[in-house]
Amino acid sequence: MPRPSIQQLRGIGDFQTLYRWQFQVVAAPAAVAGFPASEDLNLRCESTALPYRKNDKIDVTIRGHKLPQNGITTYGDNTIKLVFAETVDGTVKKLVKAYHDALWNTTTGAAAGSREDLSFDFLLTLMDNQDQPVWEYKIIGAQLDSDTPGELGNGERGDIQKPELTFHFLKFEDKQV
Known about the structure:
alpha+beta; Pnp Oxidase, Chain A; two-stranded antiparallel ribbon; 4 helices; 16% helix
């Protein structure tokens, strides 16, 4: 196969950049009081992983020969990590506290809400160079799995607190916009 020409490379189009995307909450969890506005979280959401699918395989043995057969498609490990830039008003800390309070009452051991009331949906939208949407991932049935508030230390002056929130989800849908 010959090397690509300059004209062929120019015909590819713009490449997807890592910093042109947005985060939007579609349906906030009903049991979480004081869930921040979608715009507030979008401004603070610094980075995210993209969800992915994984094709499982089944090994079928016929007369001593193993033949791989396609199995079901799963949603990777069904988790997604969001990294936020915390501000002094504590928007992300308040979200985590409200979610934990709704999830489990530590004094009584009772859950405060059902799965439906604790779940929420959100969109990750990839943008082109003119900030127009090109691809959309809708995460469905997300629930807080774990939170890492970040480390405090004597780092450089530009260090900020970056909580990492990991959510597990039921499924995701993706499409070109």
